Amino acid sequence: MTAPSTLDFLCLGSGTSYGVPMIGCRCPVCRSADPRNQRTRSSAVVTVDAVTLLIDTSTDLRTQALRHGVDRVDAVLYTHTHADHLHGIDDLRSFTLRQRQPLPCYGNAETIRVIRDRYPYIFADPECLLRWSIPRLELRELRGPVSLGGVEVVPVPLLHGRLPIYGFRIGRLAYLTDCSEIPYASWALLEGLHTLVIDGLRPQPHETHFSIAQALEVVARLRPAQAFLTHLTHDVDHGPTEAQLPPGVRLAYDGLRVKVPF
Ligand SMILES: [Zn+2]
Ligand SMILES: [Zn+2]
Ligand SMILES: [Zn+2]
Fold first, then answer.
1. Residue 138 in contact with residue 104, Cβ under 8 Å?
2. Is residue 201 part of a domain?
3. Residues measured by CB to lie within 5 Å of ligand 3, the ion
4. Residue 89 placed within a domain
5. Cα separations in angstroms, 21 against 17, 64, 178, 201, 250
6. What is the CATH number of the domain that holds 224?
7. What is the whole-number distance in angstroms between the Cα of residue 149 and the centre of ligand 3?
8. Domain assignment present for 1
9. How many CB atoms lie within 10 A of CB 121?
10. Is pTM, for the whole model, over 0.85?
11. Which residues of 22-42 are buried (b: 16+ CB within 10 A; e: fewer)?
12. Which residues pair with 241 in a beta bridge?
């Protein structure tokens, strides 16, 4: 097989679990006219040649897919099962209805268990071929690297507070949302990156997310060609905050597209 030629990263959502603006909040960022301060819940699409991988099914999935023209998905990679990353799962039926085949969904063992338990209506009767009004999903536990349509996906174990979750490395891109610690063994999976997308929640510390300063420490250690901070709260005003970041580091925003060389 010839090597893939291009990897396109699309940030569908750059926001924390509440989204920005937050319902009812009148702070300057929530009222900002800068579209980069309007953040839907965290999700991303990685496209390698003809293969489209969706990372998480955010609560804003339908809006995101329409806004950014995502009309096909070949597999879903789940980081973890917090509501902001999972609860758009029902909108996967739009893809399985169009594509007329079950959609493989990957995650760690706990993710697979929780998804099966939380959505019995999806998994109750997988043999019924008339159930296209419900997402047709195949849950697959991911224990290590997997090839999806010829694209190697490497799960990167992370800690989100005390919860073990997955980030993902695809080629020279790593997407590490919702993390507060990178375990020792995972650093080796992150060598030689071109583009790092990493949780940088807000300036203040948080128990289960890297702050901006902590994310910058990771960037300094990994030294990718470029990095983007994501999963941002309304404490982050895009323009002024980005102006203070070191060279090569920017803030993600909804609709950000990045080409990553292999
Ligand atoms: Zn989250
Ligand atoms: Zn606000
Ligand atoms: Zn989370």
1. yes
2. yes
3. 82, 178
4. yes
5. 11, 16, 19, 15, 20
6. 3.60.15.10
7. 28
8. no
9. 10
10. yes
11. beeeeeebbebeeebbbbbbb
12. none
Look up residue 15 and give its DSSP letter. B
What is the residue whose two structure tokens read 């019924």?
128
C-alpha of residue 256 to centroid of ligand 2, in Å: 22
> pLDDT (tens digit, 0 to 9) for every residue of the chain, 262 residues total?
555 568 999 999 999 999 999 999 999 999 999 999 999 999 999 999 999 999 999 999 999 999 999 999 999 999 999 999 999 999 999 999 999 999 999 999 999 999 999 999 998 876 665 567 899 999 999 999 999 999 999 999 999 999 999 999 999 999 999 999 999 999 999 999 999 999 999 999 999 999 999 999 999 999 999 999 999 999 999 999 999 999 999 999 999 999 999 8
User: What 8-state DSSP symbol labels residue 115?
Assistant: H
- 81: which 2 tokens? 């099962």
Tally of domains in the chain = 1
Rounded distance from Cα 178 to ligand 1 centre (Å)? 5
Tell me, yes or no, whether 95 lies in a domain.
yes
Assigned token pair, 107: 């995650």
Domain that holds residue 29: 7-260
Q: Tokens representing 222? A: 């990994």
The conformation of residue 81, written as its DSSP 8-state character, comes to: -
Two tokens at 93?
Answer: 């039926």
Rounded alpha-carbon distances, angstroms, from residue 214 to 1, 121, 205, 262? 40, 40, 8, 27
